[in-house]
């Protein structure tokens, strides 16, 4: 039953864990040779706070607009 409660809070937008992205370890060491669009991990700008190797994406920044 606890899993149902957790899933409900996820869908209601109260749990932002699904918006967390792992930051590229190589990027953190200034060693990633991939472009931001080619790497499967986040390459956040310097003004974005990294916590425990992760960043939280803004929901509005990942919305896909359908023409």
From TrEMBL:
One of its GO terms (biological process) is regulation of RNA splicing. One of its GO terms (cellular component) is cytoplasm. Keywords: Metal-binding, Nucleus, Repeat, Zinc, Zinc-finger. It comes from the Eukaryota. It is found in: Nucleus. Its main location: nucleus. It holds the Pfam family zf-CCCH_10. Residues 18-46 form the C3H1-type domain. A zinc finger (C3H1-type) spans 18-46. GO terms for molecular function: RNA binding; zinc ion binding. Gene3D superfamilies: 3.30.1370.210. Belongs to the muscleblind family. This is C3H1-type domain-containing protein.
């Amino acid at each position: 039953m606890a899993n149902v409660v957790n899933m409900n809070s996820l869908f209601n937008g109260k749990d932002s864990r699904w918006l967390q992205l792992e930051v590229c370890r190589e990027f953190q060491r200034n060693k990633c040779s991939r472009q931001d669009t080619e790497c499967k991990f986040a390459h956040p700008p310097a003004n974005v706070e990294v916590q425990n190797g992760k960043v939280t994406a803004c929901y509005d920044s990942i919305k896909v607009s359908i023409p």
